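<purpose> Linking amino acid order to shape
<body> The protein record starts here
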Amino acid sequence: MKSKKKAIVLLSGGLDSTTTLALAIERGFSPVGLSFTYGQRHSVEMEAAKKVADFFKVEEQIVLDLPLAQIGGNVLTDSSGEVPHNQEETAEDDIPPTYVPARNTIFLSYALAVAEVKEITDIFIGVSSVDYSGYPDCRPRFIESFEEMANQATKLGMHGNKIKIHAPLMQLDKAQTIKAGLKLGVDYSITHTCYDPDEQGRACGECDSCRLRLKGFFRLGIEDPAVYRKKP
């Protein structure tokens, strides 16, 4: 039997990355999960990433430790900052304090390095330009630019092995993303999305990430199976 083509899938354990993993598998790829600990206050997502990888029987999951907390500049890695709760949706050009500087650029760069070593030309990332929090690295132009750079800056690209950055959720809102995942058998009860969970790992239900997730389930008329300490 011919082995499936491998793909690197950035896997945080959240709703979007889990759906992206399911879509990569549905498209015929054998995924290599790539997750990061970077000093994030919502480190419980790493437990979710492992559960998701086990659920989908991912044969290889790589977890890298990055010192992004030493750089700071955001409330997700700065313990002295506070994650905004019940904040109104921001304008497209308004960058919220939960934006981690250059995070997706850094994550994709590490994915590119792993891809080079393993000679994998497909990388999946679960970004969306529809339902998002105003992050500049969740937009189509960023993905297009990174893909162009990747093919100019790597041995794979130099040898004519075109690297493709897949962003299958780019034009989907949260409700569409959830609907697509449910069709593929995703168990969203094992995913974690909240930026400000409590010590028990329960989602706050009030941060921007929780609000977007809850909105998606509400639009579908489905109850979110995640555990919340305060569910709107």
The mean pLDDT is 91. The chain is about 35% helix and 10% strand.
